[in-house]
Amino acid sequence: MNCASIEAFEQGKYIGKNSLDGEKMIKLIASDIDGTLVPDGTSKIDPNMLKVVDRCLRNGIKFVGASGRQFISIARLFEPVKDDIYYISDGGGLVRDIKQVYSANAIDPVNLAAMVKDVKQLDNCDIMLAGLDWSYAEDEGEMFRWVRDSYRFHIKAVGNFDKVMHEDITKLSIYKPGNCEEVVNEWFTAKWQNKYRITSAGTMWMDVVNMDSDKGNALRALQERLGITKEETMAFGDNVNDLGMLAEAGESWAIGSAREEVKAAAKHIAPPLSEYGVTTVITEYLDSIGADK
To answer: Can you give the pTM of this predicted structure?
Structure first.
C-alpha cells in the first residue's frame, strides 16, 4: 500500500483532496494515545488538540480515545471534553462512554493466574492487571508510582493478585524499562500466543488480552453502535497494537514517528508526535470541509 509522504502533507495534498469517493464525510475520529498524542507515559497532550476535539464535536464529528491505558487516565487527558467522547481502553478490552460500559472482555481467571506465574519467571518484569474501575499491582514499586503519577491511573497495591482474580480483568500488562518486548518474546509469547493476543504497547510495555480484545474489534463495535461506517472513520496510531484499529478506518494515519510496520499498513503518514501530527491533520480536514471554528 502506498503511503502519502510528509512532503505531500506540507504541500496541502492530504485532507484537501478528500479521498472518501468525494462524497463520504468523516463522522468518527479515533486516536491512539501514547506515542501518538502524548510521549509515552506522560500527560503532555497538545492543548490545541483539546480545542480540535471540541471543534469536531461541535461540527457533529464524534471522537474516541483508544489506548492500552485505563479509562480514567484517558478521561483525565481530555478533561474539557471528557463527558462527550468515547473510550476504547485496556487495548480494546473495554468500550464505554463517560457513564456507561458497552462491553468488557475479561480474561479467564485460571489462565490469568497461570500467566501471572509465568511473568514472575521473566527477568525483572513487573505486572499490572486492569479491572473495570481500578488497575492492580502487588506492591508500590517503581511501576506503581509511575503509573499513578504520570499516567494518572486509579491503581491499588494489593499484596497478592489472588485477591483480585475474582474480578473482571480485561488486560495483563508486563512492564520492563528498555527491552520489554525482547524479554517477553524469549519464551512467554510462544507459550501463550495461540490463546491470547500479546502486543507491544511501547518500549516498556507488553499487553496481554483476549484474542478478540483488539482496538480494531472495539472500533468496529462502536461504529455499529453509532451507525457509522468504516469509510466515515479516520484513525491515528503509531504501534503494532494500533494495526487493527487502522484497518477499520477508511482514512488510516500512521504518525511520522510510528513503527515501520504501522507506516506500511496505513493509508497516510502524518507529521510525527513532536510536530503534533494528529492535531495538524484533523485541523486541515476540518478547514477543508468548512467546519465552524
So the answer is: 0.82
